Every structure is written in structure tokens, then in C-alpha cells.
Amino acid sequence: MASSGVWALFRHVAGRAGQIIPLLVGVLVVNFLIIHAAPGDPVYALVGNYPVPDSYYKQMRHDFGLDKPLPVQLLIYLERVAHGDLGYSFAQRQPVLDVILHRLGPTVLLVGTAWAVAGVVGIAMGIASSLSPYSVRDHLLTGFTVFGYSLPVFWLGQILILLFAIGLGWLPAQGMSSPREEYGGVRHYIDVARHLVLPAVALSLQFLAINARLTRNSMLDVLKKEFITTGRSKGLPESRIIVRHALQNALLPVVTIMGFNLGFLFTGSSLVETVFGWPGIGRLLFDSVSTRDYPVLLGIFFGSTVMVFLANFLTDTAYAFLDPRVRYQ
Amino acid sequence: MEKNTATTPMRRLTRYTRRGFVTRTLQVGAAATVLPALLQDRASAQARRGGTVVVAIDTDPPTINPTITTGATDQVVGSAIYSSLVWIDTKYEPHPYLAESYTVAPNGLVYTFRLRRSVKWHDGHPLTADDVKFTIQEVLAKYHPISKAVLTNFVSAVETPDPFTVVVRLSKPYGPFLNMMTNFTGTILPKHIYEGSDIVNHPANLRPVGTGPFRFKEWNRGDRLILERNAQYFVPNQPYLDRVVFKIIPDVNARTVALRAGEVDYIWDYFWSKDQYPKLSKDPNLQFNKNADYPNLDLLIFNVRKKPLSEPDVRKAIAHAFDRRLLLERVWYGLGQPGHSPIPSAFGWAYNKDVDYQKMYAYNPATASSLLDRAGFPKGANGVRFSVRLIFDSRRPDWTSAADLIKEQLGNVGINVQLEGSERAVVIDRVFIKSDFDMTLQTYATQGDPAIGIERAYICSAVRPAPFVNASGYCNPGLDSLFAEAAGMSTHQQRAVPYGKLQTMLAAEIPTLVIREAPSVDVARKDVKGLWQDVQGWSFWGPIWTTR
């Protein structure tokens, strides 16, 4: 039985891995064509407000590989990607992989923190709401979640800055670390943590509201089930009933949504990174659109496709741990 | 802090005669030994050593080599690292910088620069005349968007009779030649690093080695660029600061927020939106300079290739139909002045006082309507005479507000304006490459001289698919001759004559309407001192210090 379960899991993983290759090729081809169809020239996007000499323009286009026919450019690009080369950034004059990896850390930190905050706080709020439905506490928490879900993240970020950075002076307004000081060791981490608070709150609030609402409703459903009544009848402690029995069942849809929302968190991070000057991938995406930095844009789409795929894969795998009824056939 | 306006200084230069020119040359030579002291004494009386100034920019510069680009971030970062032969003060007077002195021959054809002997590159190599010759001939003349045309057409030879003397010979006089030898268009590069290499893709473009007050230290992409004090800087006791940090903040509002929060100390005009001015001007911690750079011109460019804008009466009607003074007050909070002429009034020596758009094309909807009727565009049953598309960069909030007001006022005389705000790359493509527009709002930098920044908007050879040239498609060979004549003269007095004539010519046809003479308005925290000593305030970092 155990070996058949392992074999089933292996087949599941192999099958999913096989799906990603055509998916990635499709994403790259479609995005390549869309990006090149957009108006705007990468050379002109980079130079200032004076016309560049023709010889300089031609050299830049040759350096960027843009003087070749589009199908040839596409084939060259796909061949390079197959060898692990994501190309060279027009704007940054560096390999795309280096550019993206440099920015990935700050985004993972921001998105990871926001996702964790949205998960932990959202689930806690959902549980608190479900334990006293339609009470004052429930109404307050529900009102907070509706409010949090409705706020545009871009606007929320600006308000947080005005209130906490400019008004109260408690927290920094911009960036990932202090521009004036060069902290080392623990002070550096504290400095980064202080800079992380406002952008993480801005990014997490909407997803926190979703998680809280979903947890509340899911818990209310589960708490009506017969096995919960049985547990109470048997005299089990309420905390054990809530955490061990009710929550484990109620979390299934919440986990699904959290995995699903990870992709949205990454896309939402571009707005937050722009408002807060956070040097992440989202900002890089925004800047690369303005500068028509095709290789970086394609590299980001490639990377985000892989990450979304992985997030869904991990979500599926998490299901198997949470629900013993779920096994791979 | 308000600085002096730029109107009176230019009049000094109009009194040039041949004798005056020679006298001037000798004065410059004599002043050369005094000026380095002046350079330092202007700030050093109370200047404090140490500290960091944080400057907000919008993105990582694609390169830190100002000789191959006019990009704003490239230039402002590069100006702290590199130096040029001369610098220009706020009275538009040139002064020696890397040059210890310079002389100009009476015929305006020979410029002789004697270099300081103590200047070293940041890697320790000495600066010599070979660096200057190499930069002018192999770099600026081949790659710089502005300098290439000038150096190619006017410079016949660059000689280095000794290691510290550079003689530049011109084939014909070029009035603004010294303007070209400043940090924006005449930055000097190290020959020992760039010679024989691919200049455009050289690694030193991202890790520059200059002679300026600050040396490159570190670049954390997407976050900040750090420069540290150059202890070998050739101006004694400078720079005062220990570091300059260029903080990358892409959102325009976020930059002013950071300034108010004290996380950023200085924002150059280009990097903040003037709709923030009412709020920022009330902040007691901030100071402004409303003449921090050469004036720019905000233009409404007509595509004269297309009907109905091919008709001069239609263009004149449009000029009468909207109130540029109201635009100045509503959109730009009174910063600058309504456009008077193709050449800004700030260039007192070149401006023709008989040309004044505010009088010639005063706001008068009735006159606009009668001109349109006369041109054969009566109102239809729906009150509309014709429709035009107005394209502008939607990332500029002032353009969006200006476009709304223009639409409203032109609508009152029966012109239906379709607003098309797009991102910069799309605007460049549609306006300058494809000519797919009717009207567009653009800002052209004058760069201190009509031959450098203004001519390109009007001459026939600039009607080509390239950004920021003659987008209107207007071509008048007589006008071209006047521009060429003015550029090829030595003195402002001589040049004023053809410039006066061409302004009259352009005012009669207005292929492009100057809607505002736009000053460069910098903002900084009050604890930053020593700013704005160069006419391009963002480019002179040695004298800056901080009380923080």
C-alpha cells in the first residue's frame, strides 16, 4: 500500500513537471510577440530628450539584437533560454538573470512577510469571529475585513506614509534601508524590518481580509458538523475541538485561496514597491515596461510562471497532508 | 531661497566689439588665477566638512557616462563624478574648471585651454591634454546627441602642443562653443580607460572613473547609488560632503513625500511634479530655487503636415482660443511666465522684444472664432468645426491638467479636442517617429543657447523620424539660413540680429506655440547649503555642504 502511494505521488509530480515545459514555451512566445507589438523603441526610451546620432542608434539596436527580423529574434531568444541564458538587460547592461536575482530577494521578503501576516492574522481573526457569530466582536471584525478589502493598495500605501512616516515620524517612508546610514549586523536587520512594516501592511491587508472572511465562514460550517457535536459530547476541551478538529477541516479552502493569492500578491507587490521605493521585482517590472527592456520583461514573466506553477503544486501537495482522504490516484 | 532671475545678466554680453572681445580674453586669463579661490570662497566661509546629502532620482541610470547620453539620471549622477573644461555661473558667465585658464581668438576660431596641472583621475592617473583631445574627437564627436553635430560641423582640429594645453580650432565661429564645454555636453573622459574600446558598452560606464568631487563607491540597483568624497579633488578644501547618495524612488509623489519626511535632501526640477508646489511651499524646512537651470520651453506643437493645422489662420485661432496666463496660474501655480516668443525672454541678448505672443495672440475667443470662419471652418449643426487629437505624456500631471484646460477652452470656439495621454515611449513613437498626431504638448530644454536647444524645433534638417526634433514638419529655408547665420557668429550682439528676424518670421506662422517659459525649480531641505552655484545647479557638487 505504502509503495503504491509513493508511486502514485511520483507519477503525479512527473506529470505536473511535464506540463510546465509547454506552458513556459507558450508563455514566452506569446509575451515575446505582445511586448514587441507594443509601440515605443527601447533605444529612444533610454536616451534623454535630445535626438541621438544615427550611428549611435544603429549600434544600440545592433547590440540589443533588434536589427534582426522578429522571428529570428524569437528563435535566438528561445534557444538561449533553453541553455539557461535569459539575455542581457537593455537598461541595466547586465545579464537578466543577475538583474532578476538581485531584485528577487527584496520581493520575496516583502511578499513572504505580507503572505505570512495575511495568513496568521487573517486566520486568527476568522477564528475569533466564528467563535461568537453575530456578536459585537464579529461585526467589528467583519467591518474591518470589508474595509480592508475595499481599500486600493496604492492609496492605502500613500495614507500609511502620510500618517506613520510624515505625521507621526514613527516609521520610514521609503526604501528598504536608511539612505544615510550604513548599518551592519543586527542594526541592519532592525533597519530593514522598520522599512518593511508599512509596505507589508499595505500589501497584506486585502488578503488578510479575504483569509479572515473565508476562515470565519468555513469555521462556521465545520462547527455545525456532527463530529464536532460528538467531540463536545465526549467532553473534549473546547480548545482541542477548535484547533485539532474544526480548524484542520476549515483550513482546506483557506489554504487553497492562500496558494491562489500568492500570484496576486506578487503582482500587487509592484504597486507597493513603487509607492514605497522597495527595490523588488515588481518595481523592476514597472521600470522595464517604461524603458521597453524586453529581455527583463520576458525574464520576469518566465520566472513568475514558474513560481505560480510551483505555488499551485505546493498547494496540491499540502492538501494531501491536511486531508487524509486526498490521495493521488 | 530665491535666486536672481536670468534677464539682466545677458545684457552685459551684448556690448561686445572686437576690442571688447580681446579685452575680454585678457580679463579671462587674468581671472583664471583668482577664480579657483572664488570657487572655494563662495561657500567656504561657513562651510562645514562632513555629512551626507541624499538626492532623489527616478530610476537607475542606464549609464553613468554623460558623453553618450542626455538622460537626466545619467547626467545628474555623472556630474558629481566627472568634470569639464569650463562651468557657467548663474549670471551665464563661463569660468575655467578643469582648465586653469582659456583664451578665445578675436576671430572666434581658436580656443586655447590651459589645464590645471594637479588634476588626477580617481584611479590616480594624471589628467592631460590627451584626455581632452580624445574625449572631443573620439567620444563627444561620435556619440553625444548634442555635441556630435556641433563638433563634427565646426571643429576642424584639436591640438595638444604640450601635455597641459589644448587648442581647438573651428572651421567657422560657433557662438555657444564654451556652453558646449560644460558638464552636460563637454564632460571629459579618461583616455587611458576608454581608448580603443567599445565606448558605448565599456564597463567603466557603470563604474566610472572621473576627476570630479566625488568618486563612485557602490551601486545597489533599484535602491541607491553611493558616491564618496574624492580627497584628491583639485579645488582646495572641497568637496565638503563625505557622501552623496542618489536614492532611487520611481513614484513622483513618493519623492516629495520622502523629501518632507527628511529621508531625501534635494530633488532636481526634472524629478518632482509642480502640482506639489502649493503644499511644499508651505513647508518651513524646504527651500526653492526658481532658476536652477537654463529655462525650458513648454510647447504646443502643431502637425503642419495635416489639415486643418496646415492653415496658419487655424493655428493662430488656436493661440487666441486658450488663455495661457490662466494655464500658468492653474496648472503651474505661477511658476514661470506665459510664452512670449520662440526664444525665451530669459535670453535677453537674443529675445526680440517686438515679438510677444501674449500681445499678438492674446486670449480672445471672438478673434479665434472669426479666424476660423475666415479659414473656411464654420461651426456645424452640433457647434463643432473640426476635431483634433492632442497627445501628451500622461505621467506628467501638469500635462494632464493643461490638456484638460486646453480642451475646455478650444471647445468654446468649436474645436473638439480628443485627449490622448500615453506613456513617454508611446508618445515618442507616435509624435516623433510616425508623426501620428495633430497637436502635442512637449518640453524642450534650451540648454542655454538657441543654437543648442531651440533650433532643432524649427529647421528643415530636423524634420526626420527622431525624438525631440522638428515634430511639426515645418520647413522654411529662409528660417534655416537665419539660424545657421546666428550660430556661426561670435558675439551675442552679432547673433541677436538674425535671431531677431527669425522670431518675427516664426511669430507670423507659429508652427509651434510657446505656451510657457518654464523655469527649472529645484527644491531642497534648508540644511543643505552651497547649492546652485552653477547655472545648472544639479551639476556642481564641490561647494555643497550640510548642517545636518
Task: Explain what the structure shows.
The complex is a heterodimer of chains A (329) and B (548). With 329 residues, chain A is an all-alpha fold. Chain A has 12 helices and no strands. Chain A has a domain at 97-322: MetI-like fold. Chain A is 78% helix and 0% strand. In chain A, helix 5 packs antiparallel against helix 6 and helix 11 runs antiparallel to helix 12. The longest helix of chain A has 39 residues, at 185-223. The two termini of chain A are 12 Å apart. With 548 residues, chain B is of the alpha+beta class. Chain B folds into 2 domains: 38-290 and 521-548, Periplasmic binding protein-like II (D-Maltodextrin-Binding Protein, domain 2, 3-Layer(aba) Sandwich), CATH 3.40.190.10; 296-518, Dipeptide-binding Protein, Domain 3 (Dipeptide-binding Protein, domain 3), CATH 3.10.105.10. Chain B has helices at residues 9-12, 18-44, 72-81, 129-143, 147-154, 177-180, 191-194, 252-260, 277-280, 312-321, 324-332, 357-360, 365-374, 397-411, 424-433, 450-454, 477-487, 492-509; strands at residues 52-57, 86-88, 94-96, 99-104, 110-115, 155-162, 165-170, 214-220, 224-229, 243-248, 266-267, 286-289, 296-302, 337-338, 386-393, 415-422, 439-445, 512-518, 522-525, 528-529, 545-546. Chain B has a 6-stranded mixed sheet. Chain B has a 4-stranded mixed sheet with strand order 1-10-9-8, covered by helices on one side. A 4-stranded antiparallel sheet of chain B has the order 4-5-7-6. In chain B, strand 6 and strand 7 (165-170) form a beta hairpin. The interface between A and B is large, with 57 and 61 residues.
